[in-house]
Amino acid sequence: MEEFSKLTEDILNNKEFKKVKYIEHHGSTRYDHLMRVSYNSYKIAKFLHFRYKEVARAALLHDFFFSDEFRTQKDKFISTFTHPKLALENSMKNFELNDLEKNIIISHMFPISFYIPKYKESLLVGFVDKVVATYEFALKFKSKLKYAVNFASLLIIGIIK
Length: 161
Fold this sequence. Notes:
The protein is mostly helical. It has one domain (2-160): Orthogonal Bundle (Hypothetical protein af1432), CATH 1.10.3210.10. 71% of the residues lie in helices and 2% in strands. It has a two-stranded antiparallel ribbon. The termini are far apart. The relative contact order is 0.13.
């Protein structure tokens, strides 16, 4: 964790970036989501001998954008397609990025978005982002899922008897 912290220190200490700590995202905060995606991507990239420094940094910035907290469902849906560009623009205003980092940020929603990953590192971050988001949604709806599973179990038991 020490190396990861050193690689991302300037981002984590950035005044603008710190604002993501107060934005709801997948039932948690955008900061928590970014940290999960970044750290997990970093660990996998290091293991696979990918460019893990760029992965850690770009994954931390992949959802670095700001949105109205009272957005409509339609606006949230549209944001699915538009936020990678906003995150890239915001990241470029605050940090120096290389081509790999830019591609990781802009293409992380592939294949849902129109931006195509050019690097294996971009595919990795996009995949980890989807796994983490699924985990976060599961936690968010844990009680509802638990209820549904219990109800389904009762139905199955009733049918079997």
